[in-house]
Each structure stands twice: as C-alpha cells, then as structure tokens.
Write a structure and sequence with these properties.
elongated, alpha+beta, 6-stranded antiparallel β-sheet
Length: 626
C-alpha cells in the first residue's frame, strides 16, 4: 500500500497509509493529516489515489507545495518523492513497508550526504519530475518523467477495455506530460463527415474542444502531427498540439492539446511525447473496439443458445459445430450443412445468420424437397405475368426476398438438373432471370444449403452436378446424429419438457428414472425432432407431476434390436415435416402451405400421398412411425 512517511516536522501521524481515494493535509482539525506547523495553510494540499496514478494537488496554500524542492500545482507522485509543506517533509513510497523499516529508511535518506541521496534517487526505476509553475526544468529529468508516463499509459492499455475510460486516461497523461491545461480526444463519425468529442480535460467554463481549421485538418488527415500558434487558428488564447489517431491505415480521430497564451510554446520534444501517447491511444482504441465486437458476438451466441430452439451442447462434436458456425458467420462464404433429418440443420443456418453482418437482413428458408421442379423454379426465381397458366401477375422469388440477407436451401440434393444449372448461375454471377423473363435480376445473398443425402454418391451417379457441389461446399458443416452424441439426449429431453410446458397445460415437471433410462437407450432415428415429439406426446397423454415410462411410445419402452434400426428415409422426413407444420398451424392448410413454402394444391397432393387426413384426427404417436 502507498503511504507517506514523516521525515521532518510535526504531524498527527508519523506514517500515513493512502488507503482511501482522497487524503487531505493541512493545519485544520478537519484534515486527514493535521500538520502542526504555522507555515502550513489550514487546507494546504490534497492527495488523490487513482487506479494507477497518485496525484498531489496544492489547494491555493500561502507558502506553496513542493515536490523534490520544486513548487507544484499538481503532481504525479513517484517512489521516493519528497513532499514539503511549510517546514514539514514527507517521503512518498509506493512499497508495502511496515512502519519501523519504512521509518528507518526515511531517517537514513535524511542523514545521507546529498550526493549519495541524488545518486540513489537517480538509480531508481521511477525518477520524479515536477510539473510546476515554471516552464523550464532539467531536460534529463523531463525525459525520465515522460518515460514513466509512457509506461503508465502502456499499462492502461491492458487495464481499460472500456473506450471512454481509456480516452479519459490518455488526456490526463497528456496534460501531465506536456504541462497543458486542456486536452481532448475527438473520434470520427461512422460516415466520416465529422468528429465527436469523446474525452476532454480542462477548466470548467472554457469553450473546448476547438474545431480544427481546414488547413490543419488537411494535415491531420494526411497523418501529420503538428504544433500551431494562436495565429494559425485565429484564436488569441492558446498554442496547441494536433495529433492524428491512426487505425488500420486510416485516421479514425484526433487529439488536441492546448497551453494558455503567455506560457512557453510547445516544442519538438513535447510533440514527440504527445505523438507517442497518440500512438498508444490509437492502439487502445482498436483493441477496445475489437473487444466490443467479440463481446457482442459472444452475447449474440448466448442469446441464440437461449432462444426458442437452442442447441443443447454437451458433446464435443456439437461444440465444434458451434465453433465452426461462429467462425464462418464472419464471412459471406457459401455453407453446406449435412446431417440426418431432425438433427437441426436449419437451426445451424439460423445461428450463422444471427451472428453474421447480415443479421438485420431477411433469412428466407426454402424446402426444395416438397416442391415440383416447375414450382421450385418459380419459388426460387419468381415469374413474370403470363409466363404460365395461372401467372396473373409478376411474382418475386425467394432469392429476391433474401436480397441483403441469407437464403437457406434445405434438401438441396433433391433439385433437378435443370434447376441445378440455374442455381449455379446465381452462385457464380449473383444474378438470374425470372421464369418467363429476359431481364437479369442482381441480388446480394448469402447461400446456406443443407442435405441428408450423400452428394458425392449422387455426383458419381450423375444426379448432382460436380460444379454446383464445389460451389456449395466452400465450408462443410456436419451435424452428428443424436445416437452419436448420447450425452446430449437427457439434457435435450429436459429442455423440451420445460419448453413445451409453456404451451401445453400439464402438471408434469420431471422425468422418472425408468423413463430416463428408456429415453437414453433409444437410438432416435428421427433425432431431435423425434425426441421433441415424444416429449410432447407424453405431456398430452400423461398426468401427475412426473413423466413415467408408460407415457412413452411402445418402440421406446420396448426398443428393437440395434441391427433393425435404420436412419429415416426421405419420405419419412417429409411426412414428419408436413405433420409438424400442420400442428404448428392448428391444421390450417393455407398457413401450413405458407410455412412449408409450397402452394395449397401441392400440400393437398402430399397429404394424399402420405395418407395424412385433412383434419386433426390422428394420434400423435403416428408422427414418429415410419
């Protein structure tokens, strides 16, 4: 702990611990340290204890405050600084010393010959330099003092990731280092049309900061630091330092520092010191902004994890998926997501979109498997009026809707070769033509595709274009099936239970041990979607406060042998998706068709194909049957 040690004179304390923010010294009884000296004013000086700097300020005393025999108005205290108030002398130490040893050092310091004391002070790593009422002091002391301030500023870069605090620190150190009364940091606006005062220091009531004149601004924007006289800025009160802040090869702001007229003008050494502080400040600004971006991305990732359909990630495989999704979201690269039906491919696409710079743009999802070739082309690219029977007006396609955002193409392996060729053109040229149109339409869209098919096998069989595959497969994300990450099964079941209880009136609050064992032992060919449906069925069919084994479907209570379990077929996945859309839309066919991205007639064709009734008459257990 920093402290003051009494060397000469009389005071109420021989050793003063600086253990609070402000310590007042003077002759009056109300001071923290009462000095019994007639030459000391009633309220003589004040010490401010900051995070890094400890500053001594004279309070307008009659006989002045001296540090190392130099009168000061305000001074940063360094190790072994000697403070004199009247005829009373204190030694400042920033070391953790107990009283007897510290007092002994103070007495030894006092009795040592002057030449030895001077050499000892000069040999320390923290040599003091006073900022007083005079403008001319020994140059060698100034160099040492400024090196100390540069060191303090360097330490601040690692301590202040809060940008306003860092900038305020910079102006304080600048004022101390160049004996200035005013300093300010101005950061450039996002559009580059002006500057915003972001930190300042100076007497109250002054018009500060000063808007830089055009001739000076031109030099600053070219990266030049300079000294100006009052005549240069048509101002009769200050001489000034002007310093650019460089951030990745461009000027992101400026610092201005002023001394009142009548004081010695700034010189080249002042400019060199201030330029060094400006360089450190610019680096700190860049770090603080990078930290803010990382913090925002972290918060966005946490928010997405807590959203309506979060990833419950306990397994390393899923954590790796999240890490890749976070990294790829910072780019506009095309992504191909692979995994069995129900593993959460669309959720990964949503996560990438939410973390990307396109988060404020639209996310358009298209299921390519539920549309015929003709309808899919119209859905993706739109059509002109009269281009086919029923095209009574121009229609915007999904790519146009996604302009400035992201389009998610689910089941990309199901599209025809003709549609593959048109999709390839969009990926290559960022343009397409509507069905029946001749005018190219340009879009700025990030494409994320997903499939549960083996596209390499489809390429060998000629069912999927090689060039389209390589365009899509820039970044490949593979989502493991639920049976490949058994440590996630029970956490997911508990999450679905808590989530669905908000929608379904049920007294069930927990899962019994026998039900947990059955859930853990099931192979889950339908993955997370099947697990969610099973938990929903249990909430609907069960009673009491516990989900019991008998609330689970027979295939989970009495599992099949492992060799008889196969992954979901395409038809099963499509059927389950249609059933889920109908359930979410309360079996409203128009709303379900819109949710699926198909026409109502296409939906009715699918209902007939899979034997799904037109109204909600099915037992929910059929949702997980093949």
């Amino acid at each position: 702990m920093a402290s003051l040690i009494l060397k000469e004179g009389k005071a109420t304390q021989s050793m003063v611990p600086l253990d609070k923010e402000t310590v007042c010294l003077g002759r009056s009884e109300g001071n923290d340290v009462v000095i019994l000296d007639g030459r000391v004013s009633r309220e003589h000086a004040r010490i401010h204890v900051g995070d890094d700097l400890i500053t001594l300020t004279d309070l307008g005393s009659s006989n002045g405050t001296y540090v190392n025999n130099v009168q000061v108005a305000r001074q940063v205290l360094m190790e072994n600084s000697e403070i004199r108030l009247g005829s009373t002398v204190f030694l400042f130490t920033d070391q953790d010393n107990d009283f007897p040893e510290a007092a002994h050092q103070a007495q030894a310091h006092k009795s040592a010959p002057q030449s030895i004391r001077y050499q000892k002070e000069m040999s320390t790593t923290e040599i003091d330099y006073s900022i007083g009422n005079t403008d001319k002091e020994p140059r060698e002391h100034m160099v040492e003092y400024r090196l100390q301030l540069l060191y303090r500023m360097a330490r601040s870069l690692h301590s202040y990731l809060n940008l306003p605090a860092l900038l305020q620190r910079a102006v304080e150190i600048l004022c101390l280092g160049v004996r200035a009364d005013n300093a300010a940091v101005l950061l450039m606006t996002e559009d580059g049309d002006g500057f915003i005062p972001s930190a300042q220091m100076g007497p109250k009531g002054t018009r500060w900061p000063v808007e830089p004149p055009e001739n000076i601004l031109d030099k600053l924007m070219a990266g030049r630091a300079l000294i100006s006289s009052p005549e240069d800025i048509s101002k009769e009160s200050d001489c000034m330092l002007w310093l650019p802040l460089w951030d990745q090869r461009r000027v992101s702001g400026l610092i201005e520092v002023a001394r009142p007229i009548g004081r010695v003008h700034f010189d080249a050494e002042d400019l060199a010191f201030a330029s060094a502080i400006a360089g450190q400040t610019a680096a700190g600004i860049s770090d603080a902004r990078a930290f803010r971006v990382l913090r925002d991305r972290h918060l966005a990732l946490l928010k997405s994890m807590e959203s309506e359909n979060p990833f419950i990630a306990r397994s390393q495989a899923v954590l790796e998926v999240l890490r890749v999704a976070d990294r790829v979201s910072r780019t506009s690269s095309t992504v191909l997501i692979r995994g069995e039906s129900g593993t959460g491919k669309e959720m990964v696409a949503q996560l990438i979109h939410r973390l990307s710079d396109r988060r404020d743009g639209p996310l358009i999802c298209v299921n390519c498997a539920v549309l015929s070739d003709a309808l899919l082309e119209s859905e993706l690219f739109g059509h002109e009026k009269g281009s086919f029977t029923g095209a009574v007006k121009q229609r915007m396609g999904r790519f146009e809707m996604a302009d400035g955002g992201t389009i998610f193409l689910d089941e990309i392996g199901e599209i025809s070769p003709e549609t593959q060729a048109k999709l390839l053109r969009v990926l290559q040229e960022n343009e397409f033509e509507r069905v029946g149109g001749t005018r190219p339409v340009r879009v700025d869209v990030r494409v994320i595709a997903a499939t549960n098919r083996d596209l390499e096998k489809a390429m060998r069989e000629g069912a999927f274009r090689d060039d389209l595959f390589y365009r899509l497969n820039v970044v490949d994300i593979r989502i493991p099936s639920l049976r490949e990450r058994p440590e996630d099964i029970l956490p997911l079941a508990e999450h679905f239970l808590a989530q669905l209880r908000r929608k379904i009136p049920s007294g069930i609050r927990q899962i019994s041990k026998s039900a947990e064992k059955a859930i853990q032992g099931h192979t889950w060919p339908g993955n997370c979607r099947e697990l969610r449906n099973v938990i929903e069925r249990a909430l609907v069919m069960g009673d009491g406060d516990t989900l019991l084994l008998e609330h689970l479907p027979p295939e989970i209570r009495h599992p099949l042998p492992p060799e008889s379990v196969v992954p979901q077929s395409k038809e099963h996945a499509e059927k389950m998706q249609i059933l889920e859309a109908l359930r979410l839309c309360q079996w409203n066919k128009m709303d379900a068709a819109q949710r699926l991205g198909v026409s109502r007639s296409t939906l009715y064709n699918k209902l007939r194909k899979y034997g799904i009734p037109a109204s909600d008459t099915t037992d929910t257990s059929c949702w997980i049957q093949d």
